[in-house]
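Cast an eye over my tokenised protein here and flag anything odd:

===
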Amino acid sequence: MTPQDAISALNAAAEPARAADLATRFGDGDYLGVAPAALEEMARDWRQMVAFPERLDLARALWATGVFDAQLMAAKLLTQARIKDDAEIWTQICDWLEQAATWPIIDALSAAGGRRIAVDLSKMDKVHALVQSERGLDRRAALMLSMPLAKLAHPTDAEKLAIDDVLFWLTYALQDADKDVSRTAETWLKSLGKHDVKRAKMVRRVVQSRASDS
């Protein structure tokens, strides 16, 4: 599959009314309005059709168009659990996270990045850096990248340590002035609470104590 083939397929699935709604929600930009279900189905098919490293080249070409739907597809093409030698892919995801200007693209990239973190917890260094950013989208990305940790029913000792590191700053994220960030933090904590009530309650107590002190 060539980039031209991919763009043609996205254009064929475009929905003008949906594109207009996206423009209203996210501001000036290029939108095709491809339905999420259609985008997901195409991504699934293309991941099977195109192997790495060619798939990374295809993703880069789609991202370079600047089209919202194409950039979503670029992220989805890199969303895979097992990837051998993923250093270049991880670097690309991190670079795009810095460029992304809307939360749907941030979330799509975070879904791809979260799978890379799952197989190499040393990549959490990037997450801890993002949470200190002044940009709300970056702080949301930190939460979304680490969300798979919150959903682990039986974490390893290393994963428990990684979760505890997140909980240190999650108490602040829950009180973030950016409501989009605080809501995402709430989702993170609720996911954790489904199988780790003790840690979730501890976080709640810390937040409540801080609020009462202030």
